[in-house]
Write a structure and sequence with these properties.
about 85% helix, binds fe (iii) ion, Ferritin, 5 helices, mainly alpha, elongated, binds magnesium ion
Length: about 170
């Protein structure tokens, strides 16, 4: 396969690493803020653990391919732009908006890994295919959890909002 394929592939893998760094900081902020939504907080904390494992997995793919260039080179640059656009929404200080933004972010991750899996196949990186499929499964599970629980979070928010002196938004 042409080296051009390899270059794009490695760039995208680096982008994925940056995306997961972004994800970690956003999820940490959200989990750290939540007080009255223990189920959501627990699921986010579980995903923070997964996200850190994802970073290690991605790093291993980078290490196998990148022998000369500095690993972190511009990884934080490009994808950060996309991550921050979505991540800005995740910084919402209200739980319902935060959960919606989380769902959007997970779906961006699902799309990114779907593309990466195709690229890994095209460059013949079998291990990469395995890694990105594993990660994508975790993103799908997180997206589905948020999708399933959004009605509950919304209801809890509204119930809390209706009670005098009860904080609802976090
Ligand atoms: Mg992720
Ligand atoms: Fe994720």
């Amino acid at each position: 396969m042409s080296t051009n394929y390899q270059e794009h592939y490695l760039d995208w893998v680096r982008d994925a690493f940056a995306m997961e760094k972004q994800a970690e900081s956003m999820l940490e902020k959200m989990a750290g803020r939540l007080e009255h939504y223990p189920d959501l907080k627990a699921r986010i904390e579980q995903h923070i653990v997964e996200t850190r494992q994802q970073q290690d997995l991605i790093q291993s793919v980078i290490d196998r391919h990148d022998t000369s260039r500095s690993v972190l080179k511009d990884a934080m640059g490009k994808m950060a732009a996309m991550g921050q656009a979505v991540g800005g929404m995740l910084a919402e200080d209200e739980v319902v908006k935060g959960a919606i933004s989380g769902y959007v972010f997970e779906n961006m991750e699902i799309a990114s890994y779907t593309s990466l899996i195709a690229a890994a196949e095209l460059v013949g990186d079998t291990e990469g295919v395995r890694v990105f499929t594993t990660i994508r499964d975790q993103e799908i599970a997180m997206a589905e959890w948020l999708y399933t629980h959004l009605p509950d979070v919304t209801e809890q928010f509204l119930v809390r909002s209706a009670e005098p002196g009860v904080e609802a938004k976090k």
